[in-house]
Write a structure and sequence with these properties.
This protein is α+β, with helices and mostly antiparallel strands. 27% of the residues lie in helices and 27% in strands. The chain contains 4 helices and 8 strands; from the N terminus they run βαβββαβαββαβ. α3 crosses α4. The chain starts with a strand and ends in a 5-residue tail after the last strand. The model has no long low-confidence stretch (mean pLDDT 93). It comes from Pseudoalteromonas rhizosphaerae. Pathway: Cofactor biosynthesis; tetrahydrofolate biosynthesis; 2-amino-4-hydroxy-6-hydroxymethyl-7,8-dihydropteridine diphosphate from 7,8-dihydroneopterin triphosphate: step 4/4. This is 2-amino-4-hydroxy-6-hydroxymethyldihydropteridine diphosphokinase. One of its GO terms (molecular function) is 2-amino-4-hydroxy-6-hydroxymethyldihydropteridine diphosphokinase activity.
Length: 162
C-alpha cells in the first residue's frame, strides 16, 4: 500500500468540480482523508479565484497507472490536453507524494509546488503534518511553519464533502 497525497484545484464552477473529483477519487482509493477547502486568488495569471484542497489516501495502484487515472478524471470533468499551464480550469489534480518516491517521470515527485504555494502547503499541513518531505528533509508542519509568502492569501470556505 502506498501513501499518497493529491492536490485538487478548480476555478470554473469550483464547488461542483471539487465535489466531482472527490467522488471519483473515493471510488479508487482507500483510507481517504480530505483537508478543508481553501479559496485563493489565481497565481501566475489573472482569473477567477480557485478552490484548493488536498486528499490523503492509500492505494495499490502503481505510480504510472495512478498518473493516468488522475488525467482521466480531469478529462472526464472538462479538462483538455490543450489547456495552458496558467489558465482557468475545471479541475486540476496533481500528485504531490507517492510514499517517499523521488522521480521526474511519470510525474515530478515530490511535486515542486509543495514548498512554493500556500494553497498546496496549508491544506497538506492540515492532514499530513508529520509526513516527511524526502527532498526538503523536513516534515510538512515544519515547512508550513517556516513558509513566508505574504502575496499568497487563502481562506477556508464552507464545503460539505459528498
Amino acid at each position: 500500500m502506498a501513501q499518497i497525497y493529491i492536490s485538487l484545484g478548480s476555478n470554473v464552477d469550483k464547488e461542483h468540480y471539487i465535489r466531482q473529483a472527490l467522488i471519483a477519487l473515493k471510488a479508487h482509493l482507500i483510507e481517504f482523508e480530505h483537508s478543508s477547502v481553501f479559496e485563493s486568488e489565481a497565481v501566475g495569471f489573472a482569473g477567477n479565484n480557485f478552490y484548493n484542497s488536498v486528499i490523503g489516501a492509500q492505494t495499490q495502484i502503481p505510480l504510472p497507472q495512478l498518473c493516468q487515472l488522475l488525467k482521466q478524471i480531469e478529462r472526464e470533468n472538462g479538462r483538455t490536453n490543450n489547456d495552458k499551464k496558467f489558465s482557468p480550469r475545471t479541475l486540476d489534480l496533481d500528485l504531490l507524494f507517492y510514499d517517499d518516491v523521488v522521480c521526474d517521470s511519470p510525474a515530478q515527485l515530490p511535486r515542486d509546488e509543495i514548498t512554493k504555494n500556500a494553497f498546496v502547503l496549508q491544506p497538506l499541513a492540515e492532514i499530513a503534518p508529520d509526513f516527511y518531505h524526502p527532498t526538503a528533509k523536513q516534515t510538512i508542519a515544519q515547512l508550513w511553519d517556516t513558509y513566508n509568502n505574504p502575496k499568497q492569501k487563502l481562506w477556508k470556505v464552507e464545503f460539505t464533502n459528498p
